[in-house]
Amino acid sequence: MERIWVSPWLVLWLATVLTCFSNLMGVASALSSGFEENFKVMGSEDHLKTSDDGQVWHLFLDEKAGCGFQTKHRYRFGWFSMKLKLVGGDSAGVVTAYYMCSDLGAGPERDELDLEFLGNRSGQPYTLQTNVYVSGVGGREMRHMLWFDPTQDYHTYSILWNNHQIVFFVDKVPIRVYRNNGKPNNFFPNKKPMYMFSSIWNADDWATRGGIEKTDWKKAPFISSYKKFKADGCRWKQPYPECVSTTTDHWWDQYDAWTLTDNQNMDNSWVGRNLVIYDYCKDHQRYPDTPPECS
Ligand SMILES: *[C@@H]1O[C@H](CO)[C@@H](O)[C@H](O)[C@H]1NC(C)=O
């Protein structure tokens, strides 16, 4: 567990951006309009395939390169959702990430919301790591087990983001609630609009059992699949106040979206009791002073 706060960005830069930088400029015209409307490829364009109807996207990782995609637009607050099916079989060392970030690179001032799926040896369970960054500072990891095998079927992973809370959902279940405490010492990303990204890369220096389990390249390519992207959010346009007013069609900003419902609270407590395997708020060795947002 010692290394879990190593920034995945560093790894992403090495594995994805540098390795396939030469291809960065060419967004394949062969990609479906569904894809092209919303996304741009990051990295090796030949490591991303879309289904014939353009509705499903597959990202490939092999020894040469990983791959990813990003939204063309930035959003400030909203509901961001996607169906994912993760690399099956032996996926140790492989990380599939789905995240939002204010920058296109690992900028020192970036805000970020992460969902990272950490692969494992065949038959051993995936772990879902979530994290929150404000102005380049992260270290807000939680890790969860899932209650199903995420490699068998598509499941929906979503982020609700408004000025009161950030909620990470797996299907209908809120697995993590990160609240804005409204105090001056607050650690809550609410200033910067974010892009949404997804990528697959090799992180066998830290991902599986703390880096002990290495990626088995004989099993490559590793493939994760995506469909039904939804960004129900405020698309950012300058100037800044554009995405601030809480008009009624912005349901994600409305009172009902400021807290969980009773049923969601029950589900969230069930997750807390049964599926949390790491919570930075309880890691007193790492944080002798409990971070302000934890209390
Ligand atoms: C992989 O499986 C092992 C053994 O079941 C488990 O301890 C570990 O948490 C799993 N996940 C990761 C990412 O290492």
TrEMBL record:
GO cellular component entries: apoplast
UniProt keyword terms in alphabetical order: Apoplast, Cell wall, Cell wall biogenesis/degradation, Disulfide bond, Glycoprotein, Glycosidase, Hydrolase, Secreted, Signal, Transferase
Signal sequence coordinates: 1-30
Enzyme class per UniProt: transferase
Localization of this protein: Secreted, Cell wall; Secreted, Extracellular space, Apoplast
Active site positions, chain numbering: 112 (nucleophile), 116 (proton donor)
Glycosylation sites: 120
Highest rank taxon of the organism: Eukaryota
Post-translational modification: Contains at least one intrachain disulfide bond essential for its enzymatic activity.
GO MF annotations in UniProt: hydrolase activity, hydrolyzing O-glycosyl compounds; xyloglucan:xyloglucosyl transferase activity
SUPFAM superfamilies in the cross-refs: Concanavalin A-like lectins/glucanases
Enzyme Commission designation: 2.4.1.207
GO biological process: cell wall biogenesis; cell wall organization; xyloglucan metabolic process
Residue ranges annotated for the GH16 domain, each copy included: 7-226
Pfam entry (one): Glyco_hydro_16
Function comment: Catalyzes xyloglucan endohydrolysis (XEH) and/or endotransglycosylation (XET). Cleaves and religates xyloglucan polymers, an essential constituent of the primary cell wall, and thereby participates in cell wall construction of growing tissues.
Family label: Belongs to the glycosyl hydrolase 16 family.
Protein's name in the database: Xyloglucan endotransglucosylase/hydrolase
Highest classification ranks of the organism: Eukaryota, Viridiplantae, Streptophyta, Embryophyta, Tracheophyta
